[in-house]
Amino acid sequence: MMVPMPIDPQVCFTAERPRLVGLAYRLLGSVTDAEDVVQEAWVRWNRADHPTIENPAAWLTTVTSRIGIDRLRSRQRDRAVYVGPWLPEPLVSFDDQPAAAAELSDSLTTAFLVMMEKLTPTERLVLLLADVFQQPFAAVAEVVGKSPEATRQIAVRARRKVRSNGDVRPASPNDQVAAADRFVAALLGGNEAALRELLTPDSVLTSDGGADHRAARRPVVGPERIARFLTNLAKRAMQIEPGRMMLQSGWVNNAPGLIATVDGQPVWVSTFATRDGLIDRLYLMVNPDKLSSVAHPVDLV
Question: What distances in angstroms separate CA 45 from CA 8, 205, 243, one per listed residue?
Fold first, then answer.
């Protein structure tokens, strides 16, 4: 009879932490909430009877998922009265390439996370566990307290909703970078006509300013209006004393983006999704409460 090898709780949790933070972030769209959820999972892990746990990774996934979905249900009440459009907290990297593994990176894009807002909390969790993190349905069913067959049906409904919201898969990295370069050049040059030509006919810009920061309270639709909005934004930025504002390109949620800082503090972050070589969806974060994570590296997968 084989005796299970004893585990080091600290080592085990440290190894799983990036995956747990990645799961919680995709579920909640908030770096702060994700880290709070994983911290609570750590507290419960410390109290657990480790020798009786056959699969620590599965145990931690279950606990993190259940804490996360409780947090999501609570936060949805807040989102119901949120002023203006809601966007996830941006994940910013200045590396040459996004950090997440290719098979997981698509599920970190802003477009994907916005689409996830269309799902119920249970649909969201099932889709993440089954399709993103490749958990077997028997394990997912145990997490959500449903039968495997009922869980499969939840996944089917979630996938149908995802498909009805269009294709959220990003273009190739080369196409994204090429579109980003043209976008930045037109924006910095104040070239409104060039900006219009970079946008699809049904393009949409969504900005999140929260309750206290000036932003478009409704999505800006169409190349004419978006180009005008962006040109005015750039003009206001240029009025700031030279040297105080910096614009820097980077990766925002594993897609090319632009980060603006004043005196070293982030004031807005933008990213977008492309279609057929043109920019289709633009996302602009100006809510200061959601920009604190820009200077805070997050270790997740």
Answer: 12, 42, 48
